Amino acid sequence: xxxxxxxxxxxxxxxxxxxxxxxxxxxxxxxxxxxxxxxxxxxxxxxxxxxxxxxxxxxxxxxxxxxxxxxxxxxxxxxxxxxxxxxxxxxxxxxxxxxxxxxxxxxxxxxxxxxxxxxxxxxxxxxxxxxxxxxxxxxxxxxxxxxxxxxxxxxxxxxxxxxxxxxx
Length: 168
Hints:
Layout: E1 13-16, H1 18-35, E2 39-44, H2 55-64, E3 70-75, H3 79-84, H4 86-94, E4 99-103, E5 115-118, E6 123-128, E7 133-137, H5 140-156, E8 158-159
Parallel strand pairs: 2-3, 3-4
Antiparallel strand pairs: 1-7, 2-5, 4-8, 5-6, 6-7
């Protein structure tokens, strides 16, 4: 990975566009390994445009993975993850013991799944997923509000995206 030894700097403020969004996700995954966050939350309607299948993202997740760590994924649907992020699916199988996935329930015909990445010290909230516009922040009140939004959808969701398909 480029700049492997350097500690990633987590951006504060607004971002605009798919490239900026993807770069922020990559940077956050790299920061997870450097800072040793105990928990990461990924939340999105479908994760279609997240860089989860990229080699650098998986290398960062691999470096972060350890006992006592946990990653939570909330989505409206996981089929696009399964089809479009093969490396992530393989990583998820290997690290099943630290990964929890839930699918949000539909309420009134719509899904209220925030497009966000939350960590204990920083968060990214894509307020306009269609245009990939949003805000990044390390402000405690902002992180707390985003976490509360995520937890409400998580409580109403159901287990999804199993590591393996068991059955007859």
